């Protein structure tokens, strides 16, 4: 990819901007820049969490609150959804039928909803044991980080619903394909963040909490 | 994109990444559940398995490789990782040091 190829001269900002919107490589690279800024955002919230491990103020900690069975199920659902969104990408890039593409998008959406359902169930279980955000600094940090990821997954699911609607109304044109490529990148990125969450938030918190 | 890989090659890349990720996830869960209760150094193993899985998913799912056409993405990811490490490790270092000096237990 060559960024300068899409803009004829650095001086003509108007033209370069218009051209940048059409070049797929630039559009995808721009989305990478967004994801990396989102990564820094997550990183800061991770740092807050790490400094708050142990700050339970006498309230319930990781050993009382975490359910590793549910955590494992959530991890597998999200990881499998990362595979299915990848299969959807492959069917799109090799111009397979629209039905098979939509099938894999819908499977991904269902796995995402399954993940969110389990996560919300986990949060309600934690709340029933007294693990609410206002109980301690540790729990505030936990509920600042894990639901932030859940919120990202929620918006990814909404994005998929909108994309499915656009496939029907606009067809599988260049615009919709590029939007789907960015959605797939976003979805893979959320699984990367989840590796950090189960390793640091759950395992790290459980071992040191 | 002169040498566009075939449908099967593309699919195989995702499936390879998925299988490796499943294995690494299972290893991390098994390590914590078996020796995590008494041995805190299990987190070192969890960290290594987590980093391995990040690399696997970056390569097989997100196509961040050293190939020429993806070099810009690699540079972006590497630089963002540097900033991330400075922020996170710097915060943990400073706050941990502060806790030790104030004789707090962390």
What does this structure look like?
The complex is a heterodimer of chains A (209) and B (106). By secondary structure, chain A is an all-alpha fold. Chain A is built from 7 helices and no strands. Chain A has one domain (9-208): Four Helix Bundle (Hemerythrin (Met), subunit A) (Up-down Bundle), CATH 1.20.120.80. Chain A is elongated and about 55 Å long. Residues 4-12 of chain A have low confidence and may be disordered. Chain B folds into 2 domains: 1-63; 66-106. Chains A and B meet through helix 2, helix 4 and helix 7 of A and helix 1, helix 2 and helix 3 of B. Chain A: Keywords: Cell membrane, Membrane, Transmembrane, Transmembrane helix. Chain A: Belongs to the cytochrome c oxidase subunit 3 family.
- What best-fitting shape of chain B do the alpha-carbon axes yield? flat
- What's the average pLDDT of chain A? 90
Low-confidence stretches of chain B: none
Summarize the helix and strand pattern of chain A as letters. Answer: HHHHHHH
Q: List low-pLDDT spans of chain A.
A: 4-12
Q: Fill in the CATH topology of chain A.
A: Four Helix Bundle (Hemerythrin (Met), subunit A)
Using the CA coordinates, give the radius of gyration of chain B: 19 Å
Indicate the proportion of strand residues of chain B: under 5%
How many helices of chain B?
3
Question: Largest sheet of chain B, described in full?
Answer: none
Q: How far from one another are the termini of chain B?
A: 52 Å
Count of separate structural domains of chain A? 1
Fold blueprint:
The complex is a heterodimer of chains A (209) and B (106).
Chain A: H1 13-22, H2 24-52, H3 62-65, H4 68-93, H5 98-128, H6 137-170, H7 174-208
Chain B: H1 7-35, H2 42-60, H3 71-101
Helix pairs in contact in B: 1-2
